[in-house]
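Here is an idea for our session: we take a single protein and study its fold together. Once you have written the record down, we can walk along the chain together.
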Amino acid sequence: MKTLKQKKKQTEKQPLEYYLNLQYSITIDSDMEGGYVAQIKDLPGCLTQGETLEETITNINEARELWLETTYEVDDEIPLPSNDETYSGKLLLRMPKSLHRRLAKAAEVENVSLNQYLLFLLSAAS
């Protein structure tokens, strides 16, 4: 016989696709031994590494999916992304054309979008 808490948990559980479509914040840091380390702090133990930014982003997305699928299958609670409604995650930034060009070229070398590259730089500096 199930307890009231178990029944409530069962009725509140969303389909797996719901959790896979949630947007979790990713932190990427450069590794002292080379490459990068990425983690999703809202999903305990969900972290990975890669030699390039592109590889690291691919790896963390795969790690997120595996983490969510495994947690869902064993019927553990999946934390929702933490958010602060004060911040939208969007920022309009004006910069000199020369800086824009240098950043865009550096992102191209890493084979990532300018947004991904700027996010990496900001994460590493904060």
